[in-house]
Amino acid sequence: MLEKNNLEYEKVVLIGIITREQNEEKLEEYLDELEFLTYTAGGEVVKRYTQKMERPDPKTFIGSGKMEEVRQYITENEVGTAIFDDELSPAQQKNIERVLNCKVLDRTNLILDIFAQRATTSYARTQVELAQYQYLLPRLAGMWTHLERQRGGIGMRGPGETEIETDRRIVRDKISLLKKKLETIDKQMEVQRGNRGQLVRVALVGYTNVGKSTLMNVISKSKVFAENKLFATLDTTVRKVVIRNLPFLLTDTVGFIRKLPTQLVESFKSTLDEVREADLLLHVVDISHPQFEDHIASVNQILAEIKSAEKPTLMVFNKIDAYEAEKIEEDDLMTEKTSSHNTLAEWQNTWMNRLGENVLFISALNKENLEEFRKKVYEAVREIHITRFPYNNFLYPEYEAYTDEEE
Length: 407
Ligand SMILES: Nc1nc2c(ncn2[C@@H]2O[C@H](COP(=O)(O)OP(=O)(O)OP(=O)(O)O)[C@@H](O)[C@H]2O)c(=O)[nH]1
Ligand SMILES: [Mg+2]
Known about the structure:
39% of the residues lie in helices and 16% in strands. By secondary structure, it is of the alpha/beta class. The longest helix is centred in the middle third of the chain and has 28 residues, at 168-195. It is globular. The relative contact order is 0.09. Residues 206, 208-214, 226-228, 230-233, 255, 318-319, 321-322, 363-365 line the site of guanosine-5'-triphosphate.
């Protein structure tokens, strides 16, 4: 059973480790994102703990000295939840809960929880529920018994509460039931998609919170929910859009995030089918985000996982209004110039140059460069259309050939 209450902000500490693969700077970036996720889920981060380690401790993830430090802080400040940046094994989670005597979650847990809060249609809810049960299955034994006092809130909006006494068999049954339910919905959706005819299909993809829904709203005059939180969109919206006289379908769907739980990728298979079946991808990037290049890499990785990396793609760099290059003072001879000091024009001469024509810089919010956006999308859709239907290419002349305002 999913639950989505509006809760008071609960106090949370974050915990992450510095390893050879993940230096201090990277970890801080990850924790920034984890903090945003926590906030989205209804938590307030009061402290971060980091520790340098060769590898995570198999029993308690961080060392026992550090753990004692965390325990003291948690007790003194009445912190309800500790969230780890990496996936904890079921055993680790149990051990840590025993020491800290509070709720212990990992990133996967947190993301699942946000998805549970945000799922509105029965379809999205079924997908989230399936992912939750799959996450729960290996963690069932004795998971909840010592937590009776602190139930509710982040990470508890899931099957856990109601299933305390049940065994794996019941959860397994539930999983196969949900899978069947999804199969039925999938078939209906497939039929629906088939009914959409031969229109070219364009999908907005990108990291979460980059402005996909905002762009969808501007372009299609629809009203998709957009806000400054992660995973504002869970359900897929499809709109028919006409640029000049060329119609196509535009899809807005769930945003991606790094370390996206595999259970979610699997459960959201059918949502991601919209991407898989698209003819053209608009990969939206928040260029004002300091880690936008990492975001692109994560999105590309997920696209590869769902075998959609080779599709024709327009890279849409959004939020140019919010982009600010870091400055180096003229008399500062020490600071080395890095990509964070690039102006937008300088960015265009980096690897972005290799993308050729398939690049756009816009602000969906301030409606900057939208005309160029329309033109590029039109040309790309037209290209697909005339390859597919060579006999009616006369219908859609070059974008520039229009003189009147037909839109
Ligand atoms: N400054 C600026 N903010 C923008 C722009 N476009 C969108 N935003 C803001 O970015 C936030 C996220 O926008 P959404 O459209 O919800 O982003 P999304 O990619 O759909 O996010 P998810 O559905 O959560 O994956 C909102 O607060 C928007 O107002 C832009 O061009 N400039
Ligand atoms: Mg959205």
